[in-house]
């Protein structure tokens, strides 16, 4: 049974930093990453990373957020710097297994105060 367990969310002031972690179990994953959903908005991509370390970011977080992974631990991280109030959202871990199935974590809330 595949499980994704996120941690690291919380409240931070604008300009601050947070680090999210997601520990995955139950399979091997080719792509891991993070999405977020703000109130009243659709879920959007934040960052992805392949098992070989290739990363992808939208312009909205490029240069501020860094995704990394520990393949031995099946864990993906998201280092978020220079946070803005617009980054406030529920952040979801996503992992795509080597068989092509996508899995989601339950989400962790990040709140950035101005």
Task: Please provide a written account of the structure.
This protein is mainly beta. The protein is 0% helix and 57% strand. The chain contains no helices and eleven strands. Strands 2, 4, 5, 6, 9, 10 and 11 form a seven-stranded mixed beta sheet that branches. A four-stranded antiparallel beta sheet has the order 1-3-8-7, with no helix packed on it. Strand 5 and strand 6 form a beta hairpin. It is globular, with a radius of gyration of 13 Å. The mean pLDDT is 97.
Can you lay out the helices and strands and say which pair or pack?
Elements: E1 3-7, E2 10-13, E3 18-25, E4 29-37, E5 44-50, E6 55-56, E7 65-70, E8 75-80, E9 89-97, E10 102-104, E11 108-113
Parallel strand pairs: 2-11
Antiparallel strand pairs: 1-3, 3-8, 4-5, 4-9, 5-6, 7-8, 9-10, 9-11
């Amino acid at each position: 049974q595949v499980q994704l367990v996120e941690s690291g969310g919380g409240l931070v002031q604008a300009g601050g930093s947070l680090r999210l972690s997601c520990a995955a179990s139950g399979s091997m994953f080719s792509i891991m990453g993070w999405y977020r959903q703000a109130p009243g908005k659709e879920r959007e991509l934040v960052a992805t990373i392949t098992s070989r370390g290739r990363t992808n970011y939208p312009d909205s977080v490029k240069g501020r957020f860094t995704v990394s992974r520990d393949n031995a631990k099946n864990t993906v991280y998201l280092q978020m710097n220079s946070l803005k109030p617009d980054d406030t959202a529920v952040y979801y871990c996503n992992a795509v297994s080597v068989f092509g199935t996508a899995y989601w974590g339950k989400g962790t809330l990040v709140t950035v105060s101005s």
